[in-house]
Specification:
AIM24_sf, mainly beta, Trp_RNA-bd_attenuator-like_dom, AIM24, AIM24 family protein, about 220 residues
């Protein structure tokens, strides 16, 4: 794993010859060694077709390619950082939450309707996250940003997890997600609990939840 958590808001990445990683533009804080930072006009991996797909899906974010030999400190706007290690599965996360990730991971985009049908699409609209999300698949590590601390909540077939859509950060594993509602007459007259919508995740995997309902 190339990322080491220095504290809750900074990670250190080890850059080795012949390997590369991607980071959000402007996230480099300091570095040691012979390291090069190159603007990535494709916004990640996959060539021109993937770049166009990310732009159409509004999942394109300015990235830089980091190569060479040394160590780099990353952080951005004082956001909390969570390092997530993937062992062959897929991480689902909004592009603007990506701080840095292994160049070995396969980057793509996913239509929200394919994980949760119509309610998956409704979820994207209600949360303001749109109809697509970014996917990273393979063996490697990802550093994501969040407001407040982040906890990892396991998802098991016997016990789905319900998350406030605004507190959702990312999830991985064999998981389906949909928006569930608990609207009642109190909500209609403005006397509800304020928790009318929850994101329901079921299957096997984990979801990452931030300690805030504030978007980045």
């Amino acid at each position: 794993m190339p990322f080491r958590e220095i504290n809750s808001k900074m990670v250190e990445a080890t850059v080795l010859p012949g390997q590369r990683l991607f980071s959000q533009r402007g996230a480099m804080l300091a570095y040691k060694g012979d390291v090069a930072f190159t603007p990535n006009i494709q916004g990640g991996q996959g060539g021109l077709a993937s770049m166009l797909g990310r732009r159409i899906a509004n999942e394109a974010t300015p990235l830089i390619t980091v190569e060479g030999s040394g160590t780099v400190l990353f952080g951005h706007c004082g956001h909390h950082i969570q390092v997530i290690t993937l062992a062959g599965d897929t991480l689902y996360v909004e592009a603007d939450r990506l701080l840095a990730f292994d160049g070995t991971l396969q980057q793509g985009t996913m239509f929200m309707g394919s994980q949760g049908g119509v309610m998956g699409m409704v979820r994207g609209q209600v949360t303001g996250q749109g109809l697509f999300t970014t996917t990273l698949k393979g063996q490697g590590a990802v550093a994501v940003m969040a407001h407040g601390g982040v906890i990892e909540v396991p998802i098991t077939p016997q016990r789905p997890v319900h998350v406030d859509p605004q507190a959702y950060v990312a999830h991985h594993g064999d998981v389906r997600n949909k928006l569930s509602t608990a609207l009642g007459w109190r909500d209609m007259v403005g006397r509800g609990s304020g928790e009318a919508f929850q994101l329901e995740l079921s299957g096997s995997g984990a979801v990452y939840v931030q300690a805030s309902e504030e978007k980045l």
